[in-house]
Amino acid sequence: MATFANQVVWITGASSGIGEAVAVAVAQAGARLVLSARRADELQRVAARTGLPPAAVLILPMDVTQTDKLPGLAEQVQTTFGRIDYLFLNAGITQRSTVADATIADYHRLMDVNFFGVVALTKAVLPIMLAQGSGHFIVTSSVAGKLGTKQRSGYCASKHALHGFFDALQAETAEAGLFTTIVCPGYIDTPISLHALGANGQPHGKLDANQQQGMNPAEFARQWMRAVLRRKEEVYIGGLEKYGIYLKRFLPGVLSRIVRNRPGE
């Protein structure tokens, strides 16, 4: 049976929110951790919060858009722990601007972080997992990765792209003993909207009410762990908003009217 005990779990976007909550949860389940994000000081704080001894945590600052450096970082993890069992591809940014106000540079930024950076790190780790004959990729998509909504055009596009990529990866690597899980969160109480790309690339700079009223990150982490250990290929975690995915599938006209009539954030 799948387990986190003594497993090496590499988490990107580990400095806050979902990544931090998952780091604490899997540490309590006995994992060894690799914590990555751009802010080394915040990674140190998260490492201390896990309660793990220093030998069980590798703090590895990184920017996923610097794709040429990712193979070297993957080698560093392998050198430190000897293997990589779980890679949680969680780094990402969101958006709060209309198509009319967004710039092409904004769309490039969203795709570079949310898609190309994820693909590049996956490709850096893939040879390691293939050589060891096991491994599990987990990627943070979104409810917005299954449908479109206002002021999220580039964000939705980047998350939609992840589904195609990881569905293909799963098909190609299943016989080699590898697994993928695509996680689609709804509203989780994290600060992600603070750093969203606003109109003309300016920072959004505020917390959205729906985000603040969302699921507690610790509860998200609990559901995340259950889905990963059960090797679910796709899982939706959140409140009532996650049922929009089913409306999109079975009653798309109803969902379209709801989205059109809903105010932007």
Classified by CATH, the class is Alpha Beta
What letter string, H or E per element, gives the SSE order? EHEHEHEHEHEHHEHH
The total of beta strands comes to 7
Rg over CA atoms = 18 Å
Q: Indicate the overall shape.
A: globular
CATH topology: Rossmann fold
Oligomer: single chain
In DSSP terms (H or I, runs of 4 or more residues), the helix count works out at: 9
Characterize the largest beta sheet: strand count, sense, and whether it forms a barrel: 7 strands, parallel
Number of domains in the coordinates?
1
Strand order of the largest sheet: 3-2-1-4-5-6-7
Question: What share of residues is helical?
Answer: 40-55%
Query: What is the averaged pLDDT score?
Result: 94
Which residues sit in consecutive blocks of at least 5 with pLDDT less than 50?
none
User: Which structural class is indicated by helix and strand composition?
Assistant: alpha/beta
The CATH superfamily bears the name: NAD(P)-binding Rossmann-like Domain
CATH architecture: 3-Layer(aba) Sandwich
Approximate strand percentage:
5-15%
| Through-space gap between termini | 43 Å
